[in-house]
């Protein structure tokens, strides 16, 4: 539901002066110690200043603030990260009253409908980059609650690359196109990123996720979302519990494979954006369940990982995810810029009953997001843009600034006052207001990291242990591709040595592909696994699955009708692909409208291909377009359906007449049975047991 809520020429003298100026501006950064912009020496740029090693970040940390402030304002007006996004409106409803956990009003009434706006995004690329690059995906949700706006600002991976926000500029600088040549775009497969990784062991866990299929989601509708950081839920009694937030897609978690993702990027850079838009435009909804992991404060130190460490997840087998509500997306934006581009998320946007932890990544994010909006949206009044406007009345003494949109009446703009009878007043008992949890903080002012954050390999090993065979192969191939793009061989070896601390088999296979030496003393540090981490265990559904039906004149319309009726009844959809647009005549002179051609579409846009029988088989058999369509479908492990005379097209596949998993090729004598078998194969998704080599 929408909320109203270049080159130029110069004279020689000028040109020479310009050259002199440029020479004077050149600075070499290859030697010497780090300093602030004021020339003050810096001995530690890895840890922010805290009150105790596990305590909150201190506002007096001018080194952190200078570093992150400069980073936040490096690019205008595009977002520094998450520049390419796609948004949708919807609503959220909680399943049951959660007032025993939190006093947040929108989580207390199952009958309450809370409007939301969601923005999905890639991280590394510019606004014009492709959707299907290997990257983390942003998953940000703005709840327009009756107590103010609340944002869950997360990703589709539950962990992050770094433990302390002071290192975020370094991470993104390494990931972005290299500054000397502005290449590559929207890719981590280059030297600077991997140089950062091999010199920063804490990145290992997120890197494992980045090399997994999670980094190339099939659809924004089919990826998980995670709040990443640890927060607190606080109830009306002042009692708190630690919490992590999860978004679980109703359709399950599904991905592209790498060859497929690369081809999609070339054929339709807007693949994920288009999928979200068209799904909603067709009247279908996009659904996610909100889950929480809740931990009692007395259990804070119970585990072999630190619950405040953002490079660690809480295994669901140890701390179960409780599904507490559902988010339904059902309306596209009316204007991309006004809504999707101008929406401003911030993890500091919380409501009473939701509070922060001392997670050092979160502590830095609380400052950085707000600071970034000041630059990107032109000043302090971005909250007055319709997409960012809260439902309750904004009532304070903040005035003026760039792009002020309200006309604030009255003589006073301060508090306390008597000229306006003390109004607006500080919230009193019984009036909704935010109170921070009163945590006792006792520690030395220190720039160090807690010893409990120093295990960088146990959870990456657990992630590897949890993967299915096809997910493991995807990870191995991804490491080989990414490092294969790096020119510096020492980076290959250092990465392989790091992987030896995760799993010897993984290190061995990556080393083989890179020509590196496997580590002699590698060892997997744990036997633990978490089945919840594997996409092999996700939900599967035929709903919104898309089938390409290849037709030419002379197809069997009865077979076509039976198969497509089964698809529609199951919530799937199809395109008719032919050599030209317009009506295609069946053998019985019936007609079907062809809405795609081999020039306008490709197999990578579909979950399956189906060809009915009929005399058109001979024409299809001699078509290079059809052969290429079938080969890509086969090599990407997707379902292929051939009924009646179309069974002869099996000869176009590498397996020939040999039956392979996911190829539904049966007599069309009983089309009801055939259609159900095809639907079952389509629902399965990919058939990784197929031999595509």
From TrEMBL:
Presence of the UniProt keyword Oxidoreductase in the record: yes
Q: Name one GO cellular component term.
A: cytosol
The UniProt record lists the keyword Oxidoreductase: yes
Q: Do you know which Gene3D superfamilies this protein is assigned to?
A: 1.20.1370.20, 3.40.50.880, Catalase core domain
What are the Catalase core domain coordinates in residue numbering?
35-423
What is a single molecular function from GO for this protein? metal ion binding
InterPro entries from the xrefs? Catalase, Catalase_AS, Catalase_clade2, Catalase_clade2_helical, Catalase_core, Catalase_haem_BS, Catalase_immune_responsive, Catalase_large_C
Residues annotated for heme binding in this entry:
79, 119, 168, 365, 369, 376
Q: What is its EC number?
A: 1.11.1.6
- State the residue spans of region: Disordered: 514-534
Names of the cofactor(s): heme
Choose any GO biological process term that the UniProt entry carries and state it. response to oxidative stress
**Catalytic residues?**
82, 155
Q: Name one Pfam family in it.
A: Catalase-rel
Keywords in UniProt for this one?
A: Heme, Hydrogen peroxide, Iron, Metal-binding, Oxidoreductase, Peroxidase
Q: Catalysed reaction per UniProt?
A: 2 H2O2 = O2 + 2 H2O
- The Polar residues compositionally biased stretches are 523-534
Q: Which SMART domains does the protein's record reference?
A: Catalase (SM01060)
Function per UniProt: Decomposes hydrogen peroxide into water and oxygen; serves to protect cells from the toxic effects of hydrogen peroxide.
This protein is called Catalase
Originating species: Desulfitobacterium hafniense (strain Y51)
């Amino acid at each position: 539901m929408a909320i109203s809520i270049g080159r130029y020429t110069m004279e020689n003298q000028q040109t020479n002066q310009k050259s002199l100026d440029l020479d004077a501006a050149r600075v070499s950064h290859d030697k010497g110690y780090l300093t602030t912009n004021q020339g003050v020496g810096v001995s530690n740029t890895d840890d922010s200043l805290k009150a105790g090693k596990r305590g909150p970040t201190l506002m007096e940390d001018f080194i952190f603030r200078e570093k992150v402030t400069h980073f936040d304002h490096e690019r205008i007006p595009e977002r520094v990260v998450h520049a390419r996004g796609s948004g949708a409106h919807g609503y959220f409803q909680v399943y049951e009253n959660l007032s025993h956990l939190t006093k947040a009003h929108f989580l207390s009434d199952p009958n309450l409908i809370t409007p939301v706006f969601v923005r999905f995004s890639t991280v590394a690329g510019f606004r014009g980059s492709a959707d299907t690059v290997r990257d983390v995906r942003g998953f940000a949700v703005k709840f327009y609650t009756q107590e103010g706006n609340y944002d869950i600002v997360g990703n589709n991976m539950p962990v992050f690359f770094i433990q302390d926000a002071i290192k975020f500029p370094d991470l993104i600088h390494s990931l972005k196109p290299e500054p000397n040549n502005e290449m590559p775009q929207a890719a981590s497969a280059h030297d600077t990123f991997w140089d950062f990784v091999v010199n920063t062991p804490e990145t290992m866990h997120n890197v494992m996720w980045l090399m997994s299929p999670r980094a190339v989601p099939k659809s924004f509708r089919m990826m998980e979302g995670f709040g990443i950081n640890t927060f607190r839920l606080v109830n009306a009694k002042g009692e708190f519990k630690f919490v992590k937030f999860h978004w679980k897609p109703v359709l399950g978690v599904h991905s592209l494979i790498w060859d497929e993702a690369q081809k999609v990027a070339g054929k339709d850079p807007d693949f994920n954006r288009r999928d979200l838009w068209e799904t909603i435009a067709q009247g279908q909804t996009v659904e996610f369940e909100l889950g929480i992991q809740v931990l009692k404060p007395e259990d804070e130190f119970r585990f072999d990982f630190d619950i405040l460490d953002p490079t660690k997840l809480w295994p669901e087998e140890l701390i179960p995810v409780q599904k507490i509500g559902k988010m339904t997306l059902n309306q596209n934006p009316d204007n991309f810029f006004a809504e999707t581009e101008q929406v401003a998320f911030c993890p500091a946007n919380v409501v009473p009953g939701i509070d922060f932890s001392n997670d050092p990544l979160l502590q830095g994010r609380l400052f950085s997001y707000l600071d970034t909006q000041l630059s990107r949206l032109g000043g302090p009044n971005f909250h007055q843009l319709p997409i960012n406007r809260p439902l309750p009345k904004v009532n304070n003494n903040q005035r003026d600034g760039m792009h002020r949109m309200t006309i604030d009446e009255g003589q006073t703009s301060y508090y306390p006052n008597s000229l306006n009878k003390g109004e607006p007043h500080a919230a009193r008992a019984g009036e909704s207001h935010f109170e921070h949890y009163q945590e006792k903080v006792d520690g030395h002012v220190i720039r160090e990291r807690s010893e409990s954050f120093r295990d960088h390999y146990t959870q990456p090993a657990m992630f590897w242990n949890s993967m299915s065979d096809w997910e493991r192969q995807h990870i191995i191939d991804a490491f080989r591709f990414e490092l294969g793009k790096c020119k510096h061989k020492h980076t290959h070896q250092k990465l392989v040595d790091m992987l030896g601390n995760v799993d010897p088999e993984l290190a061995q296979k990556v080393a083989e592909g890179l020509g590196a030496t496997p580590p002699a003393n590698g060892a997997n540090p744990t036997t633990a696994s978490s089945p919840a981490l594997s996409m092999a265990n996700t939900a599967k559904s035929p709903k919104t699955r898309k089938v390409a039906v290849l037709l030419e004149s002379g197809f069997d319309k009865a077979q076509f009708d039976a198969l497509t009726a089964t698809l529609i009844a199951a919530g799937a959809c199809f395109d008719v692909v032919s050599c030209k647009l317009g009506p295609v005549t069946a053998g019985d002179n019936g007609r079907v409208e062809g809405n795609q051609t081999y020039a306008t579409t490709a197999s990578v846009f579909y979950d399956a291909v189906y060809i009915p029988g009929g005399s058109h088989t001979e024409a299809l058999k001699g078509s290079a377009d059809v052969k290429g369509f079938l080969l890509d479908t086969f090599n990407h492990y997707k379902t292929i359906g051939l009924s009646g005379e179309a069974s002869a097209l099996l000869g176009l596949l590498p397996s020939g007449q040999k039956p392979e998993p996911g190829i539904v090729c049966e007599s069309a004598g009983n089309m009801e049975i055939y259609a159900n078998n095809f639907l079952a194969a389509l629902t399965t998704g990919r058939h990784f047991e197929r031999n595509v080599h």
